[in-house]
Amino acid sequence: METYDIHNIPNDIFIKLLNELDVGIHVIDRSGKTIIYNKKMREIEAMAGEEVMAKDLLDVFSFEKSGSSTLVDALREGKTTKHLKQTYFNNKGREITTINDSFPIHKDGEVIGAMEITKDVTRFEQVIKENVLQKQHTTFTFEKIIGESEPITRVIEEAKRATRTSSSVLIVGETGTGKELFAQSIHNGSSRAEGPFVSQNCAAIPDTLMESVLFGTKKGAFTGAVDRPGLFEQADGGTLLLDEINSLDSSLQAKLLRVLQERQVRRVGDTKDKKVDVRIMATTNEDPLDAIAETRLRKDLYYRLSVVTLFIPPLRHRIDDLPLLLQHFFDKYNTLFHMNVKGITPEASAILRQHEWAGNVRELEHTIEGTMNLMVDEEIVTPEHLPMRFRKKYSFPESQASDNTLEETVNNFEKRYIEQKLKENDGNISRTAKNLGISRQSLQYRLKKHQLS
């Protein structure tokens, strides 16, 4: 039988070997151009060899904002990564999800290329997510987060990165900003998506019962106690979201910290620990540093939870998303109420833009629900349809015909209205802001925006 030196394998045997492998092989040279692209890789990426070979990788494929190509990173940074999930798109717009081992190729101490070994999980991920979302109530995904403004898109990209690991996540945001929506989206985008998602509002349960709810009970621990798993055991293999963690009693926070550190839970009344595999997410509706200073949040627990920290912007800081949010709620309540509301007048929109939205998106939804309850057959929301508190608080001009765009009309109205209020308050910024029902910082932003002195 003929044998070959491993360093002298004929090219046809080498190509045959590459094409028989059940994993994708992709190799680029020092310039980032493809020099090896096997059959399995072509199948995974639904690309012909001539579409990829001798071409710059970044000219052929596009990658999500949350991360660049693992193969290019291996080349540029000399970085080796193992079992890293990556989602990207081919030049036809097809989404591809893979698990990659990527590493640089060295010669004489210099990086001369990079190689990637790839397993395709695209269809597997689709099937798993479809099945999980059908079986569970955790139906929120990143695609359902509404908004295109810079503040919200930035935090979405940060949240997407958190799907790659099982590290703890602390989500900070005011009431009504959608913290649980982000938590569910992270869970459903992670490798734990097929596991349970368990959520508990810590402020909703009395301190005397919360320990039993979290850790479970053993029969006989107290009168009427039965063997019952706690939230940690229920969430085993998945994710546990603790909403308003800052409302949890300090002694319970200490016990929670122990579970996070040891990954073991002991039921109330039991003497044995049980191992649990749970990803912890927590939310707080106040600045965690303020909560620590006011002893509502233990510093050691904060450090344990805040491996990844997401700050969800309030609606007033992403007010440019208002048209998208309004349309979403119009569509939702059109279906529920059998109505046909199609839009909103510039005057009504301007009023909504002035509002501070202390309750954020949740308050906006309730406002639109209330507004549509006051409508009969109308298809356009006017100021008269808005709830009474808006009509009393904000004045609005009569509608006038104009060739201006909606955005121009709204901005012109806002500018005139602020000028009017400044004049009424003799130019005093603090009094004007209070009169408008917005913060001084928010008013200063609008003064700068409209170039008002």
TrEMBL record:
Question: Which keywords does this chain's UniProt record carry?
Answer: ATP-binding, Nucleotide-binding, Transcription, Transcription regulation
- Report TM segments: none
Which SUPFAM superfamilies does the entry mention? Homeodomain-like (SSF46689), P-loop containing nucleoside triphosphate hydrolases (SSF52540), PYP-like sensor domain (PAS domain) (SSF55785)
What Pfam families does the record tag this protein with? AAA_lid_14, HTH_8, PAS_4, Sigma54_activat
**Which SMART domains does the annotation name?**
AAA (SM00382)
Which residue range or ranges hold the Sigma-54 factor interaction domain? 145-373
Q: Does the keyword Nucleotide-binding apply?
A: yes
Asked if the record carries the keyword Kinase, the reply is no
Superkingdom: Bacteria
Q: Which GO terms describe its biological process?
A: regulation of DNA-templated transcription
GO terms for MF: ATP binding; sequence-specific DNA binding
**Protein name per the record:** Arginine utilization regulatory protein
Q: Which organism is it from?
A: Salimicrobium halophilum
**UniProt lineage:** Bacteria, Bacillati, Bacillota, Bacilli, Bacillales
